[in-house]
Amino acid sequence: MTDVSRTDNHDHRSDRKVNGAVIYVIGTGDEQHVKIGKTRQDVGARRRQHEGRGPGRQEYHFLAGVLGGDSDEKAVHRHFRHHLMPDEKEWFHAAEPIVSWVRWLRQQWFVASTEAECSALPRESADRWLPAPERITPPPQRLAFGPWGSLEAPEITGDDYYTDQRIIAAAREAMGGIDLDPASHPVANRIVQARTIYTHSTDGLAQEWAGRVWCNPPFGLWETWAARINHEWASGRIDEMCVLIATRSLTALSVAPMLAASAALCILRGRIPFWGPKATSSPDDGHAIVYFGEHAHRFIRAFAPLGTVFTGLSEVPA
Questions:
Q1: Structure pTM?
Q2: Would you kindly state where each structural domain of the chain is located, as residue ranges?
Q3: CATH number for the domain running over 162-311
C-alpha cells in the first residue's frame, strides 16, 4: 500500500523551494480535521510550522498538493465553506466531500501525493482539479478504515506491470491524447497522464468507458477483459482505443472478436520493458498494440518506429 506520507517531524530531506505556489492539504493525526492552504516555500517546512498550533496541537500528515494561485485557494475554500471549523479560514472538518476530493486528487498525474513531489509539480489549469461534483464521489464500498487510510493507493498486485513511456507517448500521438485508462494505478498514471483512471478499487470492468482510451489490462484476466473491451467499443462511447496485449494471447478464442473489431495492430519490436514494484525489464513474451478507431494512418505513423504495423484486420464475410 502507498503510504500517506507520515513524515517524521524532524525530517528535513524534502526542504526544497517549490516551483510556484502549492495549494496543499494536510490532515491531523486523529483524522478529524484538514487544512487547505497555500505556500511558495517548502511544503514540509510549512507543515511543521502548523504542528503545535492547529486543532489539538498534534502531528499532521501531508495529503495532497497541486500548483495554484490565490484565486484557486479561495475557490476551494468557498466550495467547502460549509465544513469550516468555527472561527477558522483554512481549517475544515474532515467531511466526506473533502476526503473524496483529496482521494481523487491523489490519482491525478499532476498532483503530489508526497511532500518531496511538490518541488517538481507540473502546472495544470485549475479547471482540471478544483472541486467539482464528478470529483467528489464516495468510494464504491464502505471503508473499514479512517479517512487517511482511504487515501492510500490501490494494492499493488502481481498483474501491475506499468507500460514503458515510449509506448504511451506513441499511443498519445496516435489518438491525440488519453482520456481514460480503465485498468490503471495512481503510480502508472504519472506516465499515462489520463484524465480519468479506474483502479483495482474502482473496478474498470464495472464502469462505462468513453473518449480516447488506453488499456493495459491484467494479463491473467484476458478472457474477461477482452469481452469488456469489445462491449465498450461496440457501445459507441469510445472515440479511439489502444490496447496492449501479449503476442501469445493473439490466438486466444476470447481475443478473436476483439481483433475482428479493430482497425490496426502493431507487433512491437523486441521484448518491451515494464516498470513498477513487481515488474521485470525482460518479459518472457513479445507484445502488440491493438488499435480501434478511424485514424489508422495516425496509428501507423506513431507506432511504425516501434514495430511492424498491420491494417485491415476486420473480418471479411465468408
A1: 0.64
A2: 22-151, 162-311
A3: 3.40.50.150
